[in-house]
Specification:
There is one protein chain. The protein contains 11 helices and 8 strands. By secondary structure, the protein is of the alpha/beta class. Helix 5 runs parallel beside helix 6. It binds calcium ion. Calcium ion binds next to loops.
């Protein structure tokens, strides 16, 4: 088994294994995005919201206080504002989406869970603590979409620092055991030396492939798979959420597992039939229906 195959099996296995057991327990996810930097986060936000019925979104944390000039062309210039605009656009499509699946979360619920993760606020840290400490027995997938220059420190690192300080090693171990991590390494000693390790960590930068991150390969594989056309199938005529999909970044439909919380979606080759195509999913933005 190649490392690639192993990774996909690892990440996809829960979805496959549960197919024969009726309703699938959805993954609880927290997304931490540096939206306002690389526009691929806004692409991923559109996809996340198009598939919001398939996850329990516990929170979306925006960790870049000021958008990056030149690279990011969004007229809104703060990360939280950019994410909220996406959730608001989702709200405008909600009446169509919910006809396809009643599990699409109410927009006001999502908006209440969309918080700043900037260094000068504890909102993101507190959101993580509430989700992980909650009574729900399912683990929480924490998915970091980027923490680099100009963004705040990851709220998960801050949460782990606080838990270690306030609850001691046993409390820290209990807390960490409830987390699943999908991220490159932004967490200092929490991923290197502090025991126990995360029960599952999908390191999105490893293994490198041809000197790049392995998931860059998916741009070429999926950008136009099945005749998919981002302009026709998402951006034009499908409502305000699809229209927000930025195109000044050549990574269309390239979501690696961490983009959607441990389960890949859309036209990703991992789930070609189980979840339908990204094109079909995006159509739900503009068309009501009752086939679910
Ligand atoms: Ca990013």
């Amino acid at each position: 088994m190649t490392r690639w195959t192993f990774l996909f099996c690892l990440v996809g296995a829960p979805c496959v294994a549960q197919e024969s057991r009726g309703p699938e327990p959805r993954a609880r996810v927290i997304m931490e995005t540096d939206a306002g930097g690389d526009p691929d986060d806004e692409q991923s936000l559109v996809r996340l919201l198009v598939y919001a019925n398939e996850f329990d979104i516990e929170g979306i944390i925006a960790n870049r206080p000021v958008a990056r000039d030149r690279e990011n062309k969004n007229p809104i210039r703060d990360g939280l504002g950019i994410v909220r605009a996406h959730v608001n656009a989702y709200g405008q499509c909600y009446a169509n989406l919910v006809q396809h699946d009643s599990r699409f979360p109410k927009p006001e619920q999502l908006l209440a869970r969309t918080v700043a993760g900037y260094d000068d606020t504890d909102e993101g840290v507190n959101l993580i603590l509430r989700a992980v400490d909650g009574a729900d027995p399912r683990p929480v997938w924490f998915c970091n979409w980027g923490t680099d220059h100009g963004s705040a420190a990851s709220c998960l690192k801050r949460a782990l620092d606080r838990v270690l300080r306030d609850r001691g090693r046993d409390g820290y171990a209990r807390f960490k055991s409830r987390l699943r991590l999908s991220s490159s390494d932004k967490f200092g000693e929490h991923t290197t030396t502090l025991q126990p390790p995360f029960p599952l960590w999908v390191d999105t930068f490893r293994p490198p492939l041809d000197g790049k991150r392995w998931y860059h390969r998916f741009s070429a594989l999926t950008a136009t798979a099945g005749g998919f056309d981002i302009e026709r199938d998402v951006r034009t005529g499908h409502g305000p959420l699809g229209a927000l999909y930025p195109t000044n970044r050549d990574r269309r439909s390239n979501d690696p597992p961490h983009r959607t919380g441990g389960g890949t979606r859309g036209n990703h080759p991992c789930h070609p039939t189980r979840h339908g195509s990204w094109r079909a999913a995006a159509l739900r933005l503009s068309q009501g229906g009752s086939h679910h």
